[in-house]
Amino acid sequence: MGFPEGFLWGGATAANQFEGAFLEDGKGWSTADTARYTKLDDPTKFSLLQPMTTADVAFAQADQDGIYPKRYGIDFYHRYQEDIALFAEMGFKTFRLSISWPRIFPNGDELEPNEAGLQFYDKVFDECLKYGIEPLVTLSHYEFPLGLALKHNGWESRETIAHFERYARVVFNRYKDKVKYWLTFNEINIIGMTGYLSGGILADKTDHLLQAQYQAAHHQFLGSALAVKACHEIIPDAKIGNMLARMEAYPETSNPNDVMESIYADHTNLFYSDVQIRGYYPAYMDKFFKKHQIVIQKEAGDDQLLREGTVDFMSFSYYMSSIASSDTEGEETAGNLLGSKKNPYLKSSDWGWQIDPVGLRVTLHKLYDRYQVPLFIVENGLGAKDVVEEDGSIHDDYRIDYMRDHIQEMALAIEEGVDLMGYTPWGCIDLISASTSEMSKRYGFIYVDQDDEGNGTLARSKKDSFEWYKKVIATNGADI
Ligand code: BGP
């Protein structure tokens, strides 16, 4: 039993949640800089799903009082050397980060890239490689150039595909000797739930929002296929994967109708990986599209491109499982990302996400059975409020317990035949939450001194989990 040699242990981040420097060195505005998902009175309520309008964007751009936490991040832009040195000290084999598209193409549709933006990532990748850390780079992580959103309504427009392909080709060419692991769209399935953050879709620019979101998904599939082909052509020794927010939904009971509901839940989730890995639209979506009066506009050649541009491996985030039920009367009492009934066998995080390590093994088997491609867990972890003791120490044993339980299930899955490439827990250094914009929802091994309003010294310090994870990596998962 154990993890294979070369297993990619590391940690994960995203530009819009940790770089800061939001308009520095020529970077343009992004959807993330204008999305204000501030904490609500009830912290278990998820507000990311609220659609944004042109007026909301104008308001956000005019607002200068610093209430948009994603703009200040944790200042990785200026502290990357210190942060990467800490990752190296933990023994990271890989570091997942994203390139901010509007740092490279400020409005999204320029013909020439912003050299200062390219230079920043050169320095970051060089710093990683200095320590033997392989960068794992997401091309688009919840951050779309605002210029393209306002001009074309984001990914709803077919024109966006060419702009994305140009951006992808520029970064592949520039970093071909430095980056060998790539991901196309972070949590691509989120576009079916909310169009703004990853898709640049403004609700007032369409009279059928769901149609716009699924049309955008089609365009992202094409963009993904083009990026896969370009990556293979430009960096033949690279591997490029998709990225799905995996939602494992158990049937509530052994009632066959509940089992069917869990199959339907899988359909809305696995639709995206089915297209990106199998290379064609699954037939089960026809009924869904009909029910919601969605008609995907395709052009000649689209189906062929999808077949040619399938990914090399599947990556996904895994935080929780949920319940699928045919009993629509029941209450949604778990504060899971999308709301679900509460599973009585599971505990929840402070934000109501139901903690389910065995569910990770269930999912690993399900995905590997379905696709037979290598899997990569590129996000997992516990968002929690940490307490800094008088002497500066942080005893996050709850985080260690969470990870240990998940790593044990990964080891079992590998023993049971699953091909797993690596594990990059989310927010290896504390950063801004995607769903609530809070700083106090922390995931890191490294603490960052900053509060929800952006006050603090930004000093980095090690939590107890830092030494623990270092040992896990040093023993390749044998001593957890
Ligand atoms: C995923 C996103 C990340 C991230 C993480 C944790 O959905 O890809 O960007 O932030 O979830 O979620 P949150 O920050 O809302 O706790």
TrEMBL record:
Lineage of producing organism: Bacteria, Bacillati, Bacillota, Bacilli, Lactobacillales
Active site: residue positions: E379
Species annotation: Enterococcus saccharolyticus subsp. saccharolyticus ATCC 43076
Residues forming coiled coils: none
Pfam families documented for this protein: Glyco_hydro_1
Highest taxon, organism lineage: Bacteria
Stored PROSITE patterns: GLYCOSYL_HYDROL_F1_1, GLYCOSYL_HYDROL_F1_2
Protein name: 6-phospho-beta-glucosidase
GO biological processes: carbohydrate catabolic process
S-adenosyl-L-methionine as UniProt keyword: no
Keywords recorded for this protein, A-Z: Glycosidase, Hydrolase
Gene3D superfamilies linked to this entry: Glycosidases (3.20.20.80)
GO CC terms: cytosol
InterPro entries according to UniProt: GH (IPR017853), GH_1_N_CS (IPR033132), Glyco_hydro_1 (IPR001360), Glyco_hydro_1_AS (IPR018120)
Family of this protein: Belongs to the glycosyl hydrolase 1 family.
